[in-house]
Amino acid sequence: MTNLLTNFEPTRAAGLERLKNFAPDAGQKYAIGRNYEGSAKDPGAVSALSPYLRSGVLSQSEVLRAVLDHHSPKEADHFIAEVLWRSYWQGWLALRPAVWDSYQADLKHLFNQVQTQSGLRQRWQSACLGQTGIAPFDAWAHDLVRSGYLHNHARMWFASIWVHTLELPWQLGADFFLRHLLDGCPASNTLGWKWVAGLQTIGKPYIATPENIAKFTHGRFTEVTGLAGQAAPLAAPAHPDPTPLWDTRQPDRALPTGLILHEDNLNPAHILTDAPPLAGHVTLIATADQTPWQMAPHVGAFREQAAQDMHRKLADRIGPASAPLTSAQALKAWAQDQGFAQLITADAPVGPTKAVLDAYDTLSDGPPLIRARARLDATAWPLATAGFFKFRAHIPKLLGLIT
Ligand SMILES: Cc1cc2nc3c(=O)[nH]c(=O)nc-3n(C[C@H](O)[C@H](O)[C@H](O)COP(=O)(O)OP(=O)(O)OC[C@H]3O[C@@H](n4cnc5c(N)ncnc54)[C@H](O)[C@@H]3O)c2cc1C
Predict the structure, then answer these.
(1) Which of 28, 166, 178, 329 is the most buried (most CB within 10 A)?
(2) What is the chain's percent helix, strand, coil content, to nearest 5?
(3) Domains of the chain: residue spans and CATH
């Protein structure tokens, strides 16, 4: 196992153990302590469940259920809201997939600029290597690369310094995070970076201050100097109007079916409890497509090993898994070779996995692909039409779905 995975064992058992230990502390202890910086090794008051949630090894519903076994919704309201921020960001992006497409196009353009403009290249490299001379920023760059995790407040400070002090493009910072975070998620990451830059809640950037950093790092970084006191002036294009979610279909329950696990959902309980006859299983690995640079090896290692763990559990029921696949063409060849009449997978939010599933739908001759959307996503995503404040009013209804 890659050393970087020491703090995050890529198994469902490890995720469940972490959840069991954290759930009793998800009430007041979390609310009071969540803003104080923790690390991958010692998360402090936060759960560090994000790599397991990101890959669907644990579902949001089961995490919320475990917490509600210990607390009333009111006692755990801070934690519940944070978990549902994830649904909100995913829903917001699902209703506006053009925002992800435009980030991906910007990245390709910036990749060329980094190759051709030595000034930009040097500033970008010194930020990624933690060699800017701004002590906390440099430390967080190292923490991220070495552990695959950063506390939420450190992500906010880091992104703020990247955008407003170093005046680097936010897209390059978002890419640096996505390549190294074990929980790197197209929706939470892209929109988190845009929010810090003042491009999400337009005109309201997040500015890191030395006092706030000193207080919430328990004095790890005091007397930080040189931080921008105001936001870099950035153009803020209007958000696209929400568009309808893509269609999902019901499977034919009589047909031999191939099951696809993917990096957004390695444990699709909502499919497995009521599936058509499953005749084979495979993992689709697509996140390398989200960056023009190389993904850090530990990210792929976590997801591939977590996938193997899930395939081992499925083997008794379906037989051994096929070798992982990376493209729509490969999925089609696998389905045809195995003689499946249909494929089924958990619906994937906007991002590289969905791009491969969309590409599959454009191919001819492959068996139909059924995307099964989990109940929480199906209800929550369409509610992300405006800001989180409005979305938050629906939390009691969303909690009603998971009990
Ligand atoms: C610039 C920036 C980039 C980010 N990139 C990502 C990312 O790529 N992937 C990601 O999962 N989160 C991202 N976040 C959100 C948040 O920082 C992480 O979810 C959180 O730090 C994960 O640690 P935890 O599991 O200990 O969180 P906890 O505080 O224990 O929260 C529990 C779970 O709730 C969800 N959650 C918590 N806070 C948020 C939030 N603000 N937005 C969305 N979901 C949240 C996560 O799934 C998290 O695991 C980003 C935030 C910022 C400011």
Answers:
(1) 178
(2) 55, 5, 40
(3) 7-95+382-402 (1.25.40), 100-216 (1.10.579.10), 257-372 (3.40.50.620)
